[in-house]
C-alpha cells in the first residue's frame, strides 16, 4: 500500500501542473509547451533513477524519490492535454478522432516496452538484485530516450489555429474562463475517470493483481501486460476513426454501458479459477472496453473545451480525474483487503463507468450538442 501510494502521489500534482502549464501553453503556444513539459518530466525521471538507496542516505532517499514522482506528476498534468490539443489542431477535416487517438496509442507503445523490460529483467536478475538496483533500469532507459524526444519536439511547427488567433489570453483570463466553464470541466472530469481507472487497472495494476492476488508468476502477469498494450494500440485508433464517422456520443454511451454490465462479472469469473489463460482473456476484454471508449473520449474532450483555454481546460479535467484513477492500484488493493472479495476491482471499474455515462449524458444532453462534435 505504501509503494502504491507513492505511485499515486504523483497524480496529486497533476491538477496544479494542468493549471500552471496549461495556461502557459494556451498563451505561449503548443510547441513551446511540449518542450517545457518534456524538460520537467526528464528532470523528475532522472531524480528517481539516480537517488542513492536508503542504506546510503537514510530517510532522505524515499523523500527524494517522492519529490521526483511529484515533479513527474506536475509535468504529466498537461502532457496529455498538450499533445492531444496539438493533434486535434493539425488533424485533417473529419479525422480528429483518428489523429487524437494516437496520443493514447503512443502510451500503449510505452506500456509494451516497459512490460518487455520487466520480463527481461525478471528473467535475468534474481529478486534481491531487482530490489537492490534492477528497478532503476527502466528509469535510466527513459532518461536515455529524452534527447531523441527533444529533437522531435524541437522540429514541430506551431499549429495554424494557434498562430491565427488574434487574442492570446493571459493567465488571469484563462483562470476566469475555466471558472466560468466549471460545468464543462466537471463533465470532462467525469468522462476521464472511466479512462484513468480502466487504464491503470489493466496496465499498472495487472502485475500486482496477478502476482499477489491470483498467485500467478510475475512473468505471466508481465506477458499479459504486453498483450494488453498491443490490444489497446489496436482499438484506440479504430474507435477514434469510428467516432469520426458516427459521432462521439454513440461510442461513449455504448462502451460505458458495456463496462457497467460486464466488468465485475468478468473479474468474478477470473478469480473463481485463476489461470494465465483466464487472466489474458479477461484483461483483453477490459482492454477492448477501455480502448474503444478512450478512442472517442479524448477527441470529445478537446472539442467541448472553449478554444482559448483548450489546453488548460482539457488538462485540468484530465488531471482532476487522474487524482482518483491514478490511485486505482491502491484502491483496488484496499477494497480486496477490507471486503475479502478478490473481484472488488471489477466493481471499482463499474463505478468509474457510471461516472463516464453520467458525464456523457450531461455534456451531450441537447440535440445541438449531439450534432456539434460529430465528425468535426
TrEMBL record:
Keyword annotations from UniProtKB, A to Z: Cell membrane, Membrane, Symport, Transmembrane, Transmembrane helix, Transport
Source taxon at top rank: Bacteria
Protein localization: Cell membrane
SUPFAM superfamilies: MFS general substrate transporter
Residue ranges constituting the Major facilitator superfamily (MFS) profile domain according to the UniProt record: 1-370
Membrane topology type: Multi-pass membrane protein
InterPro entries documented for this protein: H+-coupled_symporters, MFS, MFS_dom, MFS_trans_sf, Sugar_transporter_CS
Parts of the chain that traverse the membrane: 6-25, 34-57, 63-87, 99-121, 133-152, 182-202, 214-238, 250-272, 284-304, 316-337, 343-364
Family per similarity comment: Belongs to the major facilitator superfamily. Metabolite:H+ Symporter (MHS) family (TC 2.A.1.6) family.
The name this protein goes by in its record: Citrate-proton symporter
Species this chain originates from: Paraburkholderia piptadeniae
Amino acid at each position: 500500500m505504501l509503494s502504491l501510494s507513492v505511485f499515486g502521489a504523483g497524480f496529486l500534482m497533476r491538477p496544479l501542473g494542468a493549471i500552471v502549464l496549461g495556461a502557459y501553453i494556451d498563451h505561449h503556444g503548443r510547441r513551446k509547451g511540449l518542450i517545457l513539459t518534456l524538460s520537467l518530466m526528464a528532470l523528475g525521471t532522472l531524480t528517481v533513477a539516480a537517488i542513492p538507496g536508503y542504506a546510503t542516505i537514510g530517510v532522505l532517499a524515499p523523500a527524494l524519490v517522492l519529490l521526483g514522482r511529484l515533479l513527474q506528476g506536475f509535468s504529466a498534468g498537461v502532457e496529455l492535454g498538450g499533445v492531444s490539443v496539438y493533434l486535434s489542431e493539425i488533424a485533417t477535416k473529419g479525422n480528429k478522432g483518428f489523429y487524437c487517438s494516437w496520443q493514447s496509442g503512443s502510451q500503449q507503445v510505452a506500456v509494451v516496452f516497459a512490460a518487455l523490460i520487466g520480463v527481461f529483467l525478471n528473467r535475468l536478475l534474481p529478486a534481491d538484485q531487482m530490489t537492490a538496483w534492477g528497478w532503476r533500469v527502466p528509469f535510466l532507459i527513459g532518461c536515455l530516450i529524452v534527447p531523441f524526444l527533444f529533437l522531435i519536439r524541437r522540429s514541430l511547427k506551431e499549429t495554424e489555429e494557434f498562430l491565427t488567433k488574434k487574442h492570446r489570453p493571459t493567465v488571469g483570463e484563462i483562470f476566469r474562463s475555466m471558472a466560468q466553464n466549471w460545468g464543462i470541466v466537471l463533465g470532462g472530469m467525469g468522462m476521464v475517470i472511466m479512462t484513468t481507472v480502466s487504464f491503470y487497472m489493466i496496465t499498472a495494476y495487472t502485475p500486482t493483481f496477478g502476482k499477489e492476488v491470483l498467485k500467478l508468476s510475475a512473468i505471466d502477469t508481465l506477458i499479459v501486460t504486453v498483450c494488453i498494450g498491443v490490444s489497446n494500440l489496436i482499438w484506440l485508433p479504430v474507435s477514434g476513426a469510428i467516432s469520426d464517422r458516427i459521432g462521439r456520443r454513440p461510442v461513449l454511451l455504448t462502451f460505458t454501458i458495456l463496462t457497467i454490465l460486464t466488468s465485475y462479472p468478468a473479474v468474478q469469473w477470473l478469480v473463481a479459477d485463476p489461470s494465465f489463460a483466464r487472466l489474458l482473456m479477461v484483461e483483453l476484454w477490459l482492454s477492448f472496453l477501455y480502448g474503444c471508449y478512450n478512442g472517442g473520449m479524448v477527441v470529445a474532450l478537446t472539442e467541448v473545451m472553449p478554444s482559448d483555454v483548450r489546453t488548460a481546460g482539457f488538462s485540468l479535467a484530465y488531471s482532476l480525474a487522474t487524482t482518483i484513477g491514478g490511485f486505482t492500484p491502491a484502491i483496488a488493493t484496499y477494497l480486496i483487503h477490507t471486503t475479502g472479495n478478490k473481484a472488488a476491482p471489477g466493481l471499482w471499474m463499474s463505478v468509474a463507468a457510471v461516472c463516464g455515462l453520467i458525464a456523457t449524458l450531461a455534456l451531450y444532453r441537447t440535440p445541438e450538442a449531439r450534432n456539434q462534435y460529430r465528425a468535426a
